[in-house]
Design a protein that fits this description.
Layout: H1 12-16, E1 22-30, E2 40-45, E3 51-56, E4 63-67, E5 70-73, E6 81-85, H2 87-92, E7 102-105, E8 112-120, E9 126-127, E10 145-146, H3 147-160
Antiparallel strand pairs: 1-8, 2-7, 3-6, 3-8, 4-5, 4-7, 9-10
Amino acid sequence: MAKLLELDDDDYFVEHFGDKPLTDVRCSYYPVCPRPELVFGLKPHCDATVVTVLLVDDRVGGLQVLKDGVWWDVPIVPHTLLVIIGDQTEIMSNGIFKSPVHRVLTNTKKERLSVAVDYYVDPEREIEPSAQLVNEKRPALYSKVKVKDYFARSYNAFTEGKMVIDTVKI
């Protein structure tokens, strides 16, 4: 990713993980739902991660991404991993890489399973846009933030139906 951005340091993102990066795993079960129009499997959100690697159910869909105000179904591709760019990458790339808004819908006929592995920068570190991606034509779009503070904001934003990344936009 650093190469795509033409950064001097090819390990720019890796080096930001720090000495104590976090990884967590979420196993999600979405049971059959007789009235899916009334219940989200998981409401719209962005991941507060560097990246999320998702093993999606290869039998039933439900994952959707928001693009230009329209919800798009993520196609089912059996035996694949889906990589979702997280907010931390969006911040460090100064908005060049985007953390997509996504949600999970329930299904009337089939249950759904997924496994997500989240990767985070060390909570004691601060993140901000790379200095190499900030200039007069493209000013910093995000303020510097301590990762653990960003986590705290993310839980509040999620419960309020807001996007936490908006709290660090300049």
